[in-house]
Write a structure and sequence with these properties.
By secondary structure, this protein is mainly alpha-helical. It contains four helices and no strands. It starts with a helix and ends with a helix. The relative contact order is 0.07.
Length: 103
């Protein structure tokens, strides 16, 4: 790829990323008081994280049963209020054990 084309693409990418982050600050000057909009904005990070994580769970393992086992363990431990490290380690162990049983 030519260097000029690369930097053109890079500038377009940087510009669109910057605009997406700056436009809300410019468009909305005062505090949002609407309860519906505030709750909607509150849950957006969780929804995006879930939308990115769930497909990755199912594509990261060799067998879908292992992925389901890891997901179930992660959800149960998260609902019990365990920390991120504990949830990650236990779900990885669950996937490992289920994959070990398969082979």
């Amino acid at each position: 790829m030519k260097t000029s084309i690369f930097f053109t693409y890079l500038l377009i990418l940087a510009g669109t990323t910057y605009l997406i982050r700056v436009i809300p600050f410019i468009a909305i000057k005062e505090k949002i008081n609407n309860r519906f909009i505030r709750s909607f904005l509150y849950y957006i990070p969780y929804a995006v994280l879930t939308a990115m994580t769930i497909p990755a769970i199912f594509y990261a393992t060799n067998w879908w049963v292992g992925a389901v086992a890891g997901l179930i363990v992660a959800v149960i431990l998260a609902l019990k209020g365990k920390g991120l490290t504990t949830v990650a380690i236990c779900s990885c162990v669950a996937v490992f054990l289920v994959e070990l049983i398969r082979f």
